[in-house]
Write a structure and sequence with these properties.
Distance between the termini: 25 Å
Structural class: mainly alpha
Radius of gyration: 22 Å
Shape: rod-shaped
Length: 93
């Protein structure tokens, strides 16, 4: 079905966005861990926490959208054979 191709393409876009978000988060965490003494010394914890939470919020939103789309894809794959059989039976009768 063309619908499945569209859904798979959108899932691929979500996967690419997830990788970008994950890279940003891992870069931030690496920066925090390598400079933890300086962050503690200048009391920058709150700003780094806020930045990390914002990156994570974007990552979770992307993950949520991907999960909904994945559920829709699985539903369409599961329902398609049933609809084909139903329409075949209805057209026969």
């Amino acid at each position: 079905l063309p619908l499945n191709a569209i859904l798979i393409k959108r899932l691929s876009n979500y996967q690419k966005q997830m990788m970008v978000n994950k890279d940003k988060r891992l870069k931030m965490m690496s920066e925090i861990l390598s400079g933890i003494r300086i962050i503690k010394f200048f009391a920058w914890e709150e700003s780094y926490i806020a930045a990390t939470n914002e990156i994570r919020r974007v990552e979770v939103e992307t993950l949520k959208g991907s999960s909904y789309l994945r559920a829709t894809t699985m539903f369409s794959w599961m329902v398609t054979p049933v609809f084909v059989a139903l329409f075949t039976f209805l057209s026969y009768t």
